[in-house]
Amino acid sequence: MPRTPDPGTRERILDVASRLFYTHGVRAIGTQQVVAEAGTGKNLLYQHFPTKDDLVAAYLARARERVERAADAAVAAAGDDPGDQLVALVAEVGAQVRRRDFRGCAFRNLLAEFPGEESAPVAVARAMVQHSRGRVDELVARLGAADPREVAERLWLVVDGLYVQAAYRDRLDGARDAAVDTAVGLARRIVDDARR
């Protein structure tokens, strides 16, 4: 008679896989390493995640929930003004970048690992980046800028720049903090200029 899996097994597997994928990259981690570190059998892994793509997509879905929750909270805390909300979104990205364990945006990292490929994880990552950009576009449209596309593009470059610079700037020497402060200030100037 087959054993009934522990109800926390799926989450334990996903916890381990998420940590490994984020720290080392998706290509570098095989399912055998996930199984070994999660302390489960391969059959149990495949019972919850039939393919590695399913496991990677679940990791990205979990990351998306966390990022969207933080973005929603930042926008809500900023009040009703779309300019303040845009600056709050940039500040929230900055808060991620300041984290000790920050190794880049999980979605951008995956897209860089799998350029030009089409898979379920790539679709999840691409959809998240597009959703985030759509939020910026929507808030810029509410701002009433003369050229909303240009304003949104400038803000999006600030966001992308924050994510990318974290890959090579040392958090310990204050470089990331300085970049975050500069990015938030730049976002505020972009928003203020758009209102003139």
UniProtKB/TrEMBL annotation:
Keyword DNA-binding: yes
Keyword annotations from UniProtKB, A to Z: DNA-binding
Keyword Transcription regulation: no
Residue ranges annotated for the HTH tetR-type domain, each copy included: 7-67
DNA-binding region residue numbers: 30-49
Pfam families: TetR_N
PANTHER family from the UniProt entry: HTH-TYPE TRANSCRIPTIONAL REGULATOR RUTR (PTHR30055), HTH-TYPE TRANSCRIPTIONAL REPRESSOR BDCR (PTHR30055:SF200)
Protein name, entry field: TetR/AcrR family transcriptional regulator
Lineage: Bacteria, Bacillati, Actinomycetota, Actinomycetes, Pseudonocardiales
